[in-house]
Specification:
single chain, Sulphatase_maturase_rSAM, 10 strands, iron, 12 helices, TIM Barrel, 401 residues, rSAM, metal-binding, Arylsulfatase regulator (Fe-S oxidoreductase), alpha/beta, binds iron/sulfur cluster, globular
Length: 401
């Protein structure tokens, strides 16, 4: 009998906020000059707590540590080699735990040692690049992109596998086709991430986007994906395509996202404070400190209970009457607290993009021949097979460094 796949949890590890860039949308803006970094001992304590909690579970767990900043590659490579060695010792003997280390980098700080670290030390690499818009600038306001493109070439020459993350803003909204063609030509998986809240009011004033614009961009991207010969994994679009296909097939087991049962992402601030993904950095929702507190105590905290209840409320208001619920797990509403608050929502985030995007994909699949059968219970779907064959880089929960 086939083994059930391990349940995945992402720990987003803010190793240090220090950064050489000042991307204009960065939500860490006030902290980017702060050189504080996690110490090896603090990281040991975090691993010890993670190993104890997931090691006590009966089911297998896949623990993905997403190294994040600031710019994590400003830290000396020795920090990572040493902490990876200690990590191996701490997790040793726990056969049902799979631990991976991935890094999200702006790829502006690169030398031979760091190339070796990315190739031989990390299990996955995400590169932040918007391709259009000029928002990823250094302290002097100079666009970093030419350097990042040159460093991407160096990584390819060195045989380092990597994916891309591009932030969707007013500055590149109309270049979605070119963005897709860039990644298609490179054969790279990527995440297109709609602009997220910044560090202060009006930070995004001249490049903000509306929910309708996000929807339009993703519909364009979906059309391009269906016309392409390449099986690129595009996050989050792959999930929407899978939801549409499931809905068309009509005979697969429904899936419902249950954050209470399994927390898929925990954000760890540089000082060890842990948060759920929807309310990261909100002091009112701090679970506790992972350097000093076991994971079971963090997950049993009163602030996590409030965070989970808020997720459940968003799902109840948006998903319960949605025709796609079960084909779509409701993950987007559970894990996203702040994107699209419509006038009808009375201050509660509503599903504006996802539902219409899944509907658009469903209609396109029906009309395109990619969905080969007719009606419910139809046979295998070419599109889904292509998705299954696509490389699955760890792009799902990263945001740009
Ligand atoms: S409301 Fe949105 S998130 Fe919820 S099931 Fe429907 S498409 Fe998915």
């Amino acid at each position: 009998m086939a083994e059930t796949p391990a349940r995945t949890v992402h720990y987003i590890v803010k190793v240090s906020k220090f950064c050489n860039l000042r991307c204009r949308y960065c939500y860490e803006m006030p902290e980017l000059g702060n050189r504080d970094a996690m110490s090896l001992d603090q990281l040991d304590r975090m691993y010890t707590h993670i190993a104890a909690y997931y090691g006590a579970q009966e089911e297998r767990s896949r623990i993905v540590l997403v190294w994040h900043g600031g710019e994590p590659l400003i830290q000396e490579p020795e920090l990572y080699w040493e902490t990876f060695a200690r990590q191996k010792k701490i997790f040793a003997g726990r056969e049902h735990l799979q631990v991976e280390n991935v890094v999200q980098t702006n790829l502006t700080v690169l030398d031979e040692e760091r190339i070796r670290l990315l190739r031989d030390g990390f299990d996955g690499v995400g590169v932040s690049i918007d391709l259009f818009g000029g928002l990823r600038v250094n302290l002097a306001g100079k666009d970093s992109q030419a350097r990042v493109l040159a460093n991407m070439d160096r990584l390819r020459e060195a045989g380092v596998q990597f994916g891309g993350i591009s932030v969707l803003t007013r500055r590149n909204l109309h270049q979605v086709k070119k963005i897709f063609r860039f990644y298609e030509k490179m054969g790279m998986s990527f995440r297109l991430l709609p602009l997220f809240p910044g560090a202060f009011e009006d930070q995004h004033a001249d490049f903000s986007i509306t929910a309708d614009e996000v929807l339009k961009a993703f519909c364009t991207l979906a059309d391009l994906w269906m016309e392409s010969d390449k099986a690129l994994n595009i996050v989050p679009l792959s999930g929407h395509i899978q939801a549409a296909v499931r809905h068309l097939r009509g005979h697969t087991l429904p899936t419902f996202y249950n954050r209470r049962e399994w927390e898929t992402a925990i954000m760890v601030n540089t000082n060890g404070d842990a948060f759920g993904y929807p309310e990261a950095y909100d002091a009112a929702y701090r679970y506790g400190n992972i350097f000093t507190t076991p994971v079971d105590a963090l997950l049993a905290s009163e602030s996590r209970e409030r965070s989970v209840k808020a997720s459940e409320m968003r799902m109840a208001l948006s998903c319960a009457r949605c025709p796609y619920f079960g084909s779509c797990s409701g993950y987007y509403m559970a894990e996203d607290n702040h994107q699209y608050v419509g006038p009808e929502a009375q201050g509660i985030a509503m599903c504006v993009v996802e539902k219409q995007l899944v509907r658009h994909i469903e209609e396109r699949l029906k009309g395109s021949g990619l969905f080969t059968g007719a009606g419910r219970g139809a046979p295998a779907v070419t599109a889904l097979e292509r998705l299954d064959a696509a490389p699955q880089e760890n792009l799902s929960l990263s945001v740009p460094a």
